[in-house]
Structure formats: C-alpha cells, structure tokens
Amino acid sequence: MAFRLIRLGCAALAAAASLAVYSPAVRAERSTSPPVSTESLIPREDVLNVQLGPVPYVVGEDASAWPSIVSQAAVVMDMDTGVVVYAKHPTALHYPASITKIMTALLALRLGHLTDVLTASTDAVRQPPDKLYMRAGEKETLKDLLYGLLIDSANDAAVEIAERYGGSVAHFADMMNAEARALGATHTHFVNPSGLPDPRHVTTAYDMALIARAAMQIPEFRTIVDTRSYPWKGTAWQATLTNLNRMLFTYPGAIGVKTGFTSVAHETLVVAAKRGGTTFLAVLMDCPTDAQIRQDATDLLNFAFAHYQTQRILPAGYRAGFVSARDGKDPVITPEPVLATVPLGHPLDVENVLHEQAPLHAAPKGTVAGELDLVDVSTGKKLGTVPLVLAEPYQPVPKPIPWVKLAARTGTAVVLMAALVSGWRRRRRSRLSSRARVVRVQPWQESWQSARRGRR
Q1: In the record, which residues are listed under signal peptide (predicted)?
Q2: 240, 109 contact by CB (below 8 A)
Q3: pLDDT digits (tens, 9 = 90+) for 152-173
C-alpha cells in the first residue's frame, strides 16, 4: 500500500460515522457551548506512513498479528504522531468510568491556575467514594484537588472543579463535550465530571486516546499522572494518596495516565509508556478485572515497542533551501516537524525535492514560499508534500531597469529637443535679420547718435 501523509496538527481526525455499539444505547449529542481554545493541545506536525480514514492507522496495520486481549475495546496510539498501530472496536460506545476525569483535569488546567482556591459545596461533599472526604465550605487549592482527582480518583474534587469553572455540573459537562468535539472526539458525550454511571455518559477507545493525548501535552497534567504518591492534608481527613494506576509501579517506562471502574463500565484504563524516543498510549475499555486489564495493556504495549518506533524525519525549522531576495537569498524552512510511525529497525529513507516559489511582493516571516516533496528513495514513490515558509521578512528582488530601451528613448528625446532648439534659433535669427532690413534711421536719431559718438 502506498505511503500517505496527513497533517494531524491542523485538526484532529473525526471518528467513524457509524458505530458498533455494545451496551450503551445513545449516540454522542452535540454540545451548545463553545470550546476552550484547544489548538495548542493538538500537536502541529506532518505525519508520513499513515492510512487516511476515520481512524489513522499505520500503513500495514494488522490487528490479527497482535496478542489476543479480553478487553472489549482498545487502541494503541503513537503519542507523538497520533497514528494508531492497533485497534479493537475503536469506535464502539462504552462507559468510561473515571477515565472521564482526564477531560475534567484538562479543562481545569486550561481555565484555572494551580494556586486557585476552591470551596467545597454541599453537593461536592455528598459524592460517593472514591473521595477526599472534604467538609462543606472547606477550601483547597486547585493543585491539591487535581492530585486528588487524578491519583485518588476523587469524585468530590471532580464536582468542586466543575462548579468552580463551569458554574454548575451540567454546564461544565456541556463544556467537556465541546472540548471533546474540538479535539476530534466526536462520539463522546459526558454528563458529569467524575464518570459515575449514567446511560448517556459514553465514549470510545479512539476518542479517549485523542483526549488523553491532548491532556498529556500539558506539563502540569503530565507531572501529576506520573506521580506515585501525594500527601493530602484536608480538614477532616489526612492521608498519603497512592496512585491507583498500578502500571506506574509494574510497567517499565510507564508515565501515566488514569484508571476507572464502575459496575456498568467494568474496568477501564488509559496508560502511556515511553522507551527511548518512542511513546505509546494505550486505551482499554470494558474488562472484567483489574488484573486482566493490566495484563492486556502490558501485552499490547510490549508488542508495540517490539514492532514499531517513532521516526523524526525533519525537525520544525529545517532549512530546505533559499529564494532570491533583495539582499541576496532568504532561507525557506519547514514550519512543522515531519514524523512517521515505522516498523522497528526499518526507518523510511526519504529524499527531499525542493520547489521554491518566491513571493511577488514584500511578505512577512512565515509566508508560504514553496513546498518540499518527500520521496521514498527505495521505490521512488512520493510519500507526501510539506509546505515551506519564509524564515524571515522578505523583500523581493527589484525589477531590472531596461537600459537599452531607456537609452534609446533618452537619445530620441535628446535629438528631438536639439532639433526643436535649433529650429527655434534659426527662426529667431531670421526674424531679427528681417527686422534690421526694414528699419530706417530718422534725422533726429542720426544727430543723437553722432553726438553720442563725439562724447566718447
């Protein structure tokens, strides 16, 4: 199959239009709230070796070669490229349980500051466990609440965050849905910030991969979910919170993210792991036991690391060539990195073919000024094309003056002017000569002139 290129930075890919539905019986509803700006959470990059479609699979993906798992739905994604290397029912609707809190934390970090002080409401403290056992009116920082939310899966913290940054749980859920759609998670519908059971509260494995990948772009989020323990010093309850994600303790290279469980969702899990320059994100849903879902995740991640790697083909800012400018030559660069998910030990051998196109007029830095074809050296096939932009403000080369034509025109003008002047002088002398012939000296003038000569 031919290699393809997609631009994952411009917009997240939409999930499949038709869904293979298990137990949840509703489709995602459209949110009426505008999303918080999420563009910076979607990495801007050009990606090679990916098949275009509702789910961006790596070229040559074959799920049948992977280990068999018990979880009813799963996705393994290269977190740097967004390319899916494995999927089992990636767009089937499932209950997410507490992995919902990934989106809750994402919104809180986008809307608030870690030093914000939040007050626990009566509704927040009435939430069922897991919880931080706060009292109504208790004040805690957003930082402490986020650690409780993501490490201890605290439901009271989830409601407190929703009320502070959404005004109400219902409106915050609407904001969560708007954010999900902005990230490309188009089959997700959240009803609450905690993931407690509700027939309308559904998502998919692929949608949760998109949401988790975006959240992991936030440094504070990444730090929290990679924390094994955290001291909680509440008014009514003090404890050392231990991260419920056991993969942090058992899987080499694990860096987060979140677990979930309810009686209707069963076990759910999002986990990320990094080895060398490659990071994989695994999402698993609807598994009967915690031990089994961790085994499924371990098997999938092991297979991914044993068979795939992230290849960084070109960095952002790579100088691909030059365009002629007023002061010489100005460089043109790649505005975004070029990456690919490739079979382990078999990177792409890429040749660059430059097509520069200088702007006709002055242009600012970042203006498109050509493109770069990326060609597979071994096959000669074009893998994709990426834009090139100006690395600095541009001034065009001045248009050359047509000296020959200008000289000819100038010479003609000079000759014409000389002819006009010469003719004017001839006519003037002729007029003066004629006037001299007709003048007669009067007697009184003759005596006056004689007298004048005598005085000299």
Answers
A1: 1-28
A2: no
A3: 999 999 999 999 999 999 999 9
The C-alpha R_g of the chain, in whole angstroms, comes to 38
Separation of alpha carbons 17 and 436, rounded Å: 107
- In the 8-state DSSP scheme, what is residue 191? S
Give dist(CA 148, CA 132) in Å, integer.
Answer: 7
> Which residues does the annotation place in the binding site?
258
At 285, is the secondary structure helix, strand, or coil?
strand
Question: Which one of the listed residues 31, 101, 131, 194 is annotated catalytic?
Answer: 101
Structure tokens at 77: 């994604």
Residue 138 contacts residue 100 (beta carbons within 8 Å): no
Q: What domains sit in the chain, N to C, each tagged with a CATH number? A: 5-312 (3.40.710.10), 317-390 (no CATH)
pLDDT tens digits for range 4-22:
455 444 433 333 333 333 4
15 within 8 A of 185, measured Cβ to Cβ: yes
Q: Is 153 in the active site?
A: yes
- Measured distance CA(24)–CA(199) in Å, rounded: 6
Structure token digits, residue 117: 């002080």
Give me the catalytic one of 31, 71, 153, 194.
153
Greatest distance between any 2 Cα atoms in the chain? 144
Long-range contacts of 118-122 (CB under 8 A, 24+ apart): 118/142, 118/145, 118/160, 118/161, 118/164, 119/160, 119/164, 120/156, 120/160, 121/159, 121/160, 121/163
What digits encode the pLDDT tens for the residues 213-245?
Answer: 999 999 999 999 999 999 999 999 999 999 999
Query: Which residue ranges are tagged as binding site for substrate?
Result: 258
Strand partners, 309: 342
